Amino acid sequence: GPEMPRPSYQRKIVVANQKGGVGKTTTTVNLAAALALHGARVLVIDLDPQGNASTALGIDHHAQIPSIYDVLLEARTLSEIIRPVEGIEGLYCAPATIDLAGAEIELVSLVARESRLHRAVHSLVEPYDYIFVDCPPSLGLLTVNALVACEEVLIPIQCEYYALEGLGQLLRNVELVKGHLNPRLRVSTILLTMYDGRTRLASQVAEEVRAHFPGLVLRTAIPRSVRISEAPSYGQTVITYDPASSGALSYIEAAREMAEMGARQQPQPADNNQHG
Ligand code: ADP
Ligand code: MG
Question: How far is the first Cα of the chain from the last one, in angstroms, to the nearest whole number?
Fold first, then answer.
């Protein structure tokens, strides 16, 4: 498809929702792939000890490899651990290993424990148009590090009965981080995932979410699709695995909406990380 507009400043986007299985990782890797395939330079930071984003991008993440854990503990720089994603030019990944499971505890006693990722991201010299951070399903120190390092929060919401339940805690945490640690933080985007247009419930939930977050919900909803769930087992995004599938097309469309939204926005004054 045609190129997507590139942002005039680096967009840092944390993909968060403390519920597991709502499509955080799937959304992170597929939006990132879609943007990279349309001309952007994109970095995915895997901040989940499970390393699912690393797996989906075909990046080895067994216990001994240099990973985001080493960066958070300041043993390595972010540049040292970043790896190119095979088959998608312009896409890069900072992998997570299972070591990261201990970081939640190990960080507690360290100085600047909430801003370790922020420091690492801001000392990156390679230019990226987008940095996505894939969060674990919790609101602990790892997620707080992501909220401090980024400006935008993207919340994937699964179109099911309890969709909005539990979001209150995430939104309160966003406000807390905004108030104390990162004044530029804001919820910028909501993406409806695993949408089944044939059910009344899904369309009701979608309506409810749109009413609750006016202007933030992307028009494109991601359908429930077997191709999307198959892709990670091949170390691929659905966009490379089956580019003509409804799942791939919807993630490309959602990425285009995000790119266009960003093209209309100006960097905020305090942003000292402009380029391009
Ligand atoms: P999270 O990162 O929030 O825990 P995942 O992205 O890992 O969620 O998704 C949870 C599971 O649902 C995974 O097995 C994934 O492959 C599957 N999945 C995600 N989105 C879709 C979709 N649109 N259609 C079908 N399966 C999906
Ligand atoms: Mg995940």
Answer: 22
